[in-house]
């Protein structure tokens, strides 16, 4: 396994390391770093919306859904929260991916959780990778479950060697920003991490304008291509096309027979004037007043908690979308199987399952 050169080297917990002669330092280009540091708050404001696409086969058969949501959030500092998910079935086998990322205003990754699964007959695969900034390091923990076999990997990199890091989550917001600008510099090369947790290069380039049919209209769209290098095989290439307002219209991996497409134009937000309805005071006004005061306090407290933890909405959205996609007869059993992997320990999982 290769690790970067620098003042510190990556520390692996379950993977072997090679000698210094095999290590190679990979860096993001100056153009890429400058692009990230030059992002304006007004640009981020324009990126706060949701995308929803349908995954279709070459023959036009719907296979699943793909969605991306971007919101403002607050942790130790104001940040962006991006949640993306892809769910569907291939050959009647349920599969999906979910990414939740917390990013600074210049797209530096504060924390990201990446989950992939494929449920095959008698042989399921589940991969979870969590990374978080801690004490100047990016600490990464990966758990892979194949059937009954569980493999864990740990890795940490100093943030100094991950300057210009782009992950699955941050790449989606980065492309949205590029699409809104309708231009990008040459030599947009960033660093990323491959499935083996090695540092690799990922680059972006313009695909220019083309026309794409969306619903009953033919619209001009702007294309961005992302090329992800690999240490073990050929690079993978993704091509995305965006509408003028930054909404994603098409997403496809080059060579794949599956395409993610926007079937209908997103509805434009309409301003609605809500008229204040006066309260009708009844009987004991003092008690009614105390009730209303307490109600507002609880409402503000709940709203504050939800703003601090936007992942709650993403988690509930994931569950409901998969529930509606699968339509199980036994909802309680389905909920038990869905939420059990989130338990910290097997004992916790058993207790939660029994409570359901």
From TrEMBL:
Family per similarity comment: Belongs to the CATIP family.
Keyword Membrane recorded: yes
Signal peptide: none
KW Chaperone (keyword) present: no
InterPro entries: CATIP_N (IPR048777), DD_CATIP (IPR047501)
Residue intervals of the Ciliogenesis-associated TTC17-interacting protein N-terminal domain: 31-257
Chain intervals for the UniProt region annotation (Disordered): 1-26
Compartment annotation: Cell membrane; Cytoplasm, Cytoskeleton; Nucleus
The organism's taxonomic lineage, starting at the top: Eukaryota, Metazoa, Chordata, Craniata, Vertebrata
Annotated organism of origin: Oreochromis niloticus (Nile tilapia)
Protein name: Ciliogenesis-associated TTC17-interacting protein
Swiss-Prot/TrEMBL GO biological process terms: actin filament polymerization; cilium assembly; determination of heart left/right asymmetry
Chief site of localization: membrane
GO CC entries: cytoskeleton; nucleus; plasma membrane
PANTHER family registered for this protein in UniProt: CILIOGENESIS-ASSOCIATED TTC17-INTERACTING PROTEIN (PTHR15505:SF3), RIIA DOMAIN-CONTAINING PROTEIN 1 (PTHR15505)
Cited function: Plays a role in primary ciliogenesis by modulating actin polymerization.
Highest rank taxon of the organism: Eukaryota
Sorted UniProt keywords: Cell membrane, Cilium biogenesis/degradation, Cytoplasm, Cytoskeleton, Membrane, Nucleus
């Amino acid at each position: 396994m290769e690790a970067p050169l620098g003042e510190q080297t990556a520390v692996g917990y379950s993977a072997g390391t090679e000698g210094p002669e095999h290590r190679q330092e990979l860096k993001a280009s100056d153009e890429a770093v400058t692009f990230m540091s030059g992002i304006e708050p007004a640009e981020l404001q324009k990126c706060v919306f949701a995308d929803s696409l349908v995954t279709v086969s070459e023959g036009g058969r719907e296979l699943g859904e793909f969605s991306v949501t971007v919101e403002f959030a607050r942790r130790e500092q104001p940040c962006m929260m991006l949640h993306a998910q892809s769910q569907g079935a291939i050959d009647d086998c349920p599969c999906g991916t979910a990414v939740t990322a917390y990013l600074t205003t210049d797209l530096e990754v504060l924390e990201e959780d990446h989950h992939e699964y494929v449920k095959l007959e008698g042989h399921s695969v589940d991969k979870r990778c969590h990374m978080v900034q801690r004490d100047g390091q990016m600490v990464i923990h990966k758990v892979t479950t194949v059937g009954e076999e569980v493999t864990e990997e740990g890795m940490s990199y100093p943030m100094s060697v991950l300057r210009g890091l782009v992950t699955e989550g941050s790449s989606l917001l980065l492309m949205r920003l590029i699409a809104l600008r309708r231009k990008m510099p040459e030599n947009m090369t960033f660093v990323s991490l491959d499935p083996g947790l090695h540092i690799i290069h990922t680059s972006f380039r313009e695909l220019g304008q083309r026309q794409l049919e969306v619903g009953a209209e033919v619209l001009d769209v702007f294309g961005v291509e992302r090329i992800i290098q690999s240490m073990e095989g050929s690079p993978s290439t993704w091509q995305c096309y965006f509408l003028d307002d930054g909404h994603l219209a098409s997403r496809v991996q080059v060579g794949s027979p599956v395409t993610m497409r926007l079937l209908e134009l997103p509805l434009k937000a309409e301003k609605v004037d809500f008229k204040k309805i006066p309260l009708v005071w009844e009987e004991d006004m003092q008690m009614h007043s105390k009730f209303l005061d307490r109600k507002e306090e609880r409402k503000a407290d709940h709203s504050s908690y939800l703003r601090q933890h936007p992942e709650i909405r993403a988690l509930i959205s994931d569950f409901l979308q998969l529930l509606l996609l699968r339509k199980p007869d036994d909802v309680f059993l389905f909920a038990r199987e869905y939420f059990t992997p989130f338990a910290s320990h097997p004992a916790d999982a058993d207790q939660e399952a029994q409570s359901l």
